[in-house]
Amino acid sequence: MKDYCTQMEAAKKGIITPEMEIVSAKEEINVDKLMELVACGQVAIPANIYHNSLSPEGIGTGLKTKINVNLGISGDCKDYDMEMQKVDLAIKYGAESIMDLSNYGKTNVFRQELIKKSPAMIGTVPMYDAIGYLEKDLLEITAKDFLRVIEAHAKEGVDFMTIHAGINRRTVEAFKRDRRRMNIVSRGGSLLFAWMEMTGNENPFYEYYDDVLEILRRYDVTISLGDALRPGCIDDSSDAGQLCELIELGNLTKWAWEHDVQVMVEGPGHMALDEIASNMKMEKRLCHNAPFYVLGPLVTDIAPGYDHITAAIGGAVAAASGADFLCYVTPAEHLRLPDLADVKEGIIATKIAAHAADIAKGVKGAREADNRMSEARHKVDWEEMFSIAIDEEKARAYYESTPPSDRHTCSMCGKMCAVRTTNMILEGKKVELLKLDEK
Ligand code: SF4
User: Fold this and answer.
1) CB of residue 419 inside a 6 A radius of ligand 1
2) Please, are residues 267 and 230 in contact by the beta-carbon 8 Å criterion?
3) Does the beta carbon of 416 lie inside 6 Å of ligand 1?
4) Do 382 and 245 share a structural domain?
5) Pocket of ligand 1 contains residue 44 by CB under 6 Å
6) Range of the domain at 409
7) Of 338, 361, 384, at which residue does a domain stop?
8) 76 plus 220 within the same structural domain
């Protein structure tokens, strides 16, 4: 019998859990230091007691930036096999987290299979599932009903849940007063706003926050405090609604920690490049250094079809400035449910952003792969280069699609390969380009 319920409770009691041991080995961080970071909330280890296939990861201060892949069944695309193939892709390319955003029919069958097979942590947004799970329309759902959905997900083994508890009456007032271009673009946030406006009630996740925390504590589910008022265009960022909600999220963070529930805080959204760094610092300040989970931020609104790039630019700056966890964005963002190719593009773009940020943040070991790649390039060792590449298949396919006549170069510069020329001179050899033509 364990004498703790959550990773945070264990850490506060000075107990090193098996999950902390695994994370400390993965991150090459001293386990006592890690325990201290979990105890004070700067690191979360989302690990539901019923997720038996989980390979635990830590999210937060001093650790590698993690990435999340969204997938799930929707009303317009009910292809279970396709969604499972996306799961396989996410695992193959090393995503540390998968969010099941299924919002159609009985989603538990897909989710249970996902939890059974996934070493990645699993997140959900119970609000999306409420209508299907409860078989009631929005207006008929009661506050207690919402709690039942949270408990159902927790029992299944979900590691973290996005719960939009910060859009309470005060936040709504600020949002309505300070008009914005795109209003609310968070799916869960918009449903809650609609429920609150139609019923006249307070946000049930805010009103019954203690009950929410009690459920999450029992299964060691990490709360990911959703930002219902995340800006949906760059013109809405850093406005009264966003900041008012962030202040509430800071309050809810402390409240959760008092119950030993681990916390992540969610962030924007869409945001101009020059606002990102200060937003990250403000989040850390207002939310007491809790791990920060960002969706993007997308740094421009005019690139549909390329939003994996707009998000990766913002994600790299965000993570370099303090964000700990990046939600992937695919080229299909704003346009349709992503297909397999979109998922792969989104994962790779987000991994690049996370890795670039880790180099900038000085995360332990982050530069090692880059240095090994440089060594391989210096030696013009193609196999070594492919094996280090974030996307080995694509790198190899590009090289082989236009093979050079001399494999000590590539088809970009051919015989004028700068690397080879310099290597030859430094080795005391002559460079005779015309003679190379004769070979
Ligand atoms: S040919 Fe040009 S691009 Fe290709 S490896 Fe040599 S220097 Fe690099």
Assistant:
1) yes
2) yes
3) no
4) no
5) no
6) 368-426
7) 361
8) yes
